[in-house]
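Summary of Year 1 activities. Much of the first year was spent building the evaluation harness for sequence design. The harness presents a backbone, in tokenized form, and records the residue chosen at every position. We chose the following record to illustrate the format because it has been used consistently in internal testing since the harness was completed.
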């Protein structure tokens, strides 16, 4: 074989290998809720680049009445390869038979924090008495329609014995990050999981609420039934739970799973 034919054959081989790589690339559909989104936005593109895949990200809360909520999306027949959401909401999907058995992977723990408008004085919330006084002194309080907000509305106010005083001035915010309505000045004080507060501009992060009153939310991922790319989904979840990505997980305000 002369030099020209050798080079021509090599070019055909390279083109063929490139075609194989293209054929093997998959679009993985990921439904993820707010608390893990900041970490996912860092780690997802890395995984996609390393595996020659693409990720189609669908955002929605873990629960609630909004049509964008992950359980409501699945109930309407929307397809996903991976769901990432609050652990107990995922457990309900597992009980309903919407998740492939044995595919749940624990990803991170999330604690509740608070923000005020950028430039406003930072109140104290790191002891029980300070948190109680801060809530009573606030003109308005906002919290989410997901796990942290449900806890605040149904348990935290009761535990502090301030439910009657707070409920008239406290409001559950649907669909959008709580910090956005604090940034616009519509609410004085906003509570949500720390990882959902930190990315929002226009607010000052105060810190986490007093640990004795803290509610820790576990985020977990799993593979829905009828997922089109279950093997790729397993690899993605394993990567998101791996030891080497924990610094990135923690940088977004989440805590590693013990």
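For this record, the design step produced the sequence shown next.
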């Amino acid at each position: 074989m002369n030099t020209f034919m050798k080079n021509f054959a090599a070019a055909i081989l390279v083109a063929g290998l490139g075609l194989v790589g293209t054929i093997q690339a998959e679009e993985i559909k990921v439904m993820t809720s707010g608390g893990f989104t900041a970490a996912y936005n860092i780690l997802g593109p890395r995984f996609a680049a390393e595996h020659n895949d693409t990720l189609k990200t669908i955002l929605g809360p873990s629960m609630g009445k909004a049509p964008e909520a992950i359980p409501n999306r699945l109930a309407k027949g929307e397809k996903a390869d991976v769901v990432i959401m609050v652990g107990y909401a995922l457990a309900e999907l597992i009980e309903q038979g919407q998740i492939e058995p044995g595919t749940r992977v624990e990803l991170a723990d999330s604690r509740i924090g608070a923000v005020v408008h950028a430039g406003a004085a930072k109140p104290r919330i790191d002891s029980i008495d300070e948190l109680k006084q801060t809530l009573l002194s606030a003109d308005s309080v906002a919290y989410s329609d997901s796990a942290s907000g449900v806890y605040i509305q149904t348990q935290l106010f009761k535990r502090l014995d301030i439910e009657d005083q707070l409920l008239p001035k406290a409001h559950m915010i649907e669909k959008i990050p709580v910090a956005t309505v604090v940034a616009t000045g519509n609410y004085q004080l906003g509570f949500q999981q720390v990882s959902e507060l930190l990315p929002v501009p226009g607010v000052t992060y105060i810190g986490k609420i007093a640990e004795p009153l803290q509610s820790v939310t576990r985020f977990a991922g799993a593979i829905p039934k009828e997922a089109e790319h279950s093997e790729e989904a397993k690899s993605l979840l394993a990567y998101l739970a791996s030891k080497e990505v924990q610094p990135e997980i923690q940088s977004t305000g989440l805590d590693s799973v013990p």
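Residues 25-109+217-251 form a domain with the D-Maltodextrin-Binding Protein; domain 2 fold (CATH 3.40.190.10). Quantitative recovery figures across the full test set are reported in Table 2.
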